[in-house]
Design brief:
With about 300 residues, the chain is of the alpha+beta class. It contains 12 helices and 13 strands. Helix content is about 40%, strand content about 20%. The protein is elongated and about 80 Å long. The two termini are about 40 Å apart.
Length: about 300
C-alpha cells in the first residue's frame, strides 16, 4: 500500500478533441491513448457527458432573434451568455460545452430555434484564449482541474450540479493500492519493515505504540487492499470486490466548471457558507482557489 498526497492540476484546453479524450481516459485509469479512438468510442456508446469538459465559446454581433432564443435558457446550467448592447453595435458572448452542442444538433432536427442557435455558435466560435482575454469572456470562462484526493472527498465535490465530472473507477486501484493522505495524517511517515511490521514516525520521531490510531488506520487500509486483491484473484469481479476498499482510497477526478460555478463550489467547500467544510474537501478547495487566483480571479 502507498500513501499519496492530495493534488490539484489545472488542465488548459489547447485542443478540444485531445481535451475530451484526456478527461475521459481518467475513468479507465489511462494517461495516454489515441484521441480519435477514444472520441469515437464515446460517441458510439453515447457517453456524451464527457463532452461537458469541452469548452465552447462564441462572440458575435447582436441578434434580436437569438436574444429571444437565449432567453429560454436563462436557468440552464449548460450555457451562459452576456449581451453588451441591444443594438447593431452590441455583441453576444456565449460560453457553453460540447455536450450541449451535441444536444443542440439532435434538437435542431425538429426545432428551428435550436438550429438558429447552433448555427450562430458555429459561425462565431472563437478559441478559448481569445474569449478569456476579453473582460466579459473572463467572467464567463470555464476551467478544468485534475484532482487527486480520497473517494470520500470526491463525493463532497460530486454533490453539486451540474455534474461535469470524470472520475477514475475503483476497478483500477488493484495495481497500486493507494490511499490519499487524509488531513489528520499530516506529519506522519509510515512504512513496513522486512518482517511486515509497521514503522511509524511523527515529525521524524519513532512512535512504537502499536495501539496508536495511525497504526490501526494503516493496518486496516492495508488489510482492505490485500482482501481486495485476494477477492479479484479468487474470481470475484472488480466491481464487486471493491466493496471492501476504504473510503480514503485514492482517486483521480476531472472537474470542469465556469468561474461562476467554481465560486459557488468554493463557497460550499472552502468558505463553508452552509456549514463547516469537511477538512479534506477544504484542502482540495484551497488548492483550486489558489489556481484560480493565479489565473487572475479575486476572492473574498
Amino acid at each position: 500500500m502507498k500513501i499519496i498526497e492530495p493534488f490539484v492540476e489545472f488542465i488548459p484546453q489547447k485542443d478540444a478533441k485531445h481535451h475530451v479524450a484526456t478527461c475521459a481516459r481518467i475513468c479507465y485509469g489511462k494517461e495516454t491513448g489515441k484521441d480519435d479512438v477514444t472520441i469515437n468510442t464515446l460517441i458510439n456508446k453515447h457517453h456524451f457527458s464527457m463532452f461537458r469538459h469541452e469548452s465552447v465559446y462564441a462572440i458575435g454581433k447582436y441578434n434580436n432573434v437569438l436574444r429571444e432564443i437565449l432567453f429560454e435558457f436563462n436557468k440552464c446550467h449548460y450555457i451562459d451568455y452576456v449581451i453588451t448592447e441591444k443594438s447593431d453595435n452590441g455583441k453576444i458572448y456565449i460560453s457553453t460545452n460540447g455536450n450541449f452542442i451535441i444536444d443542440l444538433n439532435h434538437l435542431s432536427e425538429w426545432n428551428f430555434k435550436y438550429k438558429v442557435l447552433l448555427k450562430y455558435i458555429d459561425n462565431n466560435k472563437v478559441e478559448p484564449e481569445e474569449f478569456i482575454n476579453t473582460e466579459i469572456g473572463f467572467n464567463l470562462a470555464r476551467y478544468t482541474f485534475k484532482v487527486t484526493t480520497q473517494i470520500s472527498t470526491s463525493r463532497e465535490f460530486n454533490r453539486v450540479s451540474p455534474n461535469n465530472i470524470a472520475e477514475r473507477s475503483t476497478r483500477y486501484v488493484y495495481e497500486d493500492g493507494s490511499i490519499c493522505r487524509p488531513h489528520w495524517l499530516k506529519g506522519y511517515f509510515i512504512y513496513k519493515d522486512t518482517n511486515r511490521k509497521y514503522i511509524i514516525y511523527k515529525d521524524n520521531k519513532l512512535d512504537e505504540d502499536v495501539n496508536h490510531k495511525v497504526y490501526r488506520f494503516i493496518k486496516s487500509c492495508d488489510n482492505s487492499f490485500e482482501n481486495y486483491k485476494y477477492l479479484v484473484e479468487a474470481g470475484l469481479h472488480r466491481q464487486d470486490a471493491r466493496g471492501v476498499l476504504p473510503l480514503d482510497t485514492a482517486t483521480i477526478c476531472i472537474y470542469t466548471y465556469s468561474i461562476k460555478e467554481w465560486r459557488h463550489i468554493l463557497d460550499l467547500r472552502y468558505y463553508g457558507t452552509t456549514g463547516e467544510p469537511q477538512p479534506n474537501a477544504k484542502i482540495i478547495a484551497s488548492m483550486i482557489r489558489n489556481e484560480l487566483i493565479y489565473l487572475g480571479y479575486d476572492f473574498r
